[in-house]
Amino acid sequence: MLKADFLAKRGDFSIEIQLHVNREILVLCGPSGAGKTTILQCLSGLLQPVSGFIELNGRLLFSDIKGINLPPRERNIGYVFQDYALFPHLTVRQNVVYGIKKGSGNSTSLDPMELLSSFGIDLLADRYPGQISGGEKQRTALARALAAQPELLLLDEPLCALDKDIRSALRFELKKIHREWQIPFILVTHDEEDAAVLGDSKMSLSRKRAAAMAAGS
Amino acid sequence: MHLADWSPVFLSLKVALLAVLVVCLIGVPLARLMARTEFHGKDIVEAVLTLPLVLPPSVVGYGLLICIGKNSPLGQALDSMGITLIFTWYAAVIASAVVAFPLMYQSVKAAFQSVDQTLEDAARTLGAGEARVFFTVTLPLAWAGIVSGIVLTFARALGEFGATLMVAGNIPGKTQTIPLAIFFAVDARDKATANTLVFLTTMFSFLVILWVNTWSRRQRKYLER
Questions:
Q1: In a designed cystine with A68, which of A63, B5, B93, B218 is the match (CB 3.0 to 4.6 A)?
Q2: Nearest CB to A81: which of B122, B127, B224?
Q3: How far is B17 from chain A (nearest CA, A)?
Q4: Which tens digit of pLDDT belongs to each residue from A63-114?
Q5: How far is the C-alpha of A62 from the C-alpha of A42, rounded, in Å?
Q6: Is B218 an interface residue toward A (CB < 8 Å)?
């Protein structure tokens, strides 16, 4: 469960948000410039909020009062970037296994090949990102983020670079993946249809006003 | 083709390789730092770091004499420990390194800046620490630029003449590198030695550049579709 209430600034633009997300898909919807990506960056630790707190499964990730600001690598939050951000010099397989934690005996570590085939990219394992299609890149990015066994997955416009038919197929897949993984997803989109189909709950952000509204159950 | 004394060839290679090593060890971390930080007076620092490239080598040599010469504080401190730099081949390494440094710095910095920061962020969210991010993402993606920096540095160090002459002198067998040997062979009308050294240097440089070009194209095969 994610609990967060923070104020973030990017340039002269500031945004305040309160989040309360259980094992559901929360969709953050709004036009570009509304601060959607800024929120994801704050949650993942890539950007430091000005004030407030972020708590994930009882673990405090950020708190300006207590002076806590965990770096991204200690947050255990998966991030699927808007342009996928696949490592171009690594194969699909090498990309996917990049975040698998080694040597931790207690946790059941994932079998990379099983993961690849569950995302339908096992036949592409030895290709480079420059050699695969947009939908395949998206699956690779999803598999890579989930291979690290995150406690929360952030998705920044996961469908916006895809063709219409792949788009609806992937929407369905995302729903399925979410059911399988049983972790909260926060998905950012400017597409109302994506939001309607994917979101268990939805939060709208507007450009002018800093959104401050509780979502979820 | 005959060469009475091969020592300039071996000395030149030794000096150039060591200069490249020194420049790499200082230039790569510094370039990485400067590629991603902004501070007041950065332009001034950048200008100073590039200065040895545009200054005449004799000016650099003179500056080095002031810095590491026997009468300088550093020279005296080293002297008390029994170390002399001036007119040894160490001074030739220092001169080559200083003169070639901007070439390494500029190309490596450009290479680091060209690496998409989102990729580094992606690695961080996947649990990578800063060292792993650097060695598995930043460095491999900047590799072509680093190699070209190494080649340029090596070429410049191998050809270094002016500053080397001023701080290391021209002691045959001790500090006489190829460019110095060529100059003094011509001066002494020893055409055979000059011809051989010129031929060797030209061939060697050509082969190095050829190899690097072929190699770097093969390295970036992943970009092909």
A1: A63
A2: B122
A3: 29
A4: 999 999 999 999 999 999 999 999 999 999 999 999 987 755 555 667 878 8
A5: 9
A6: no
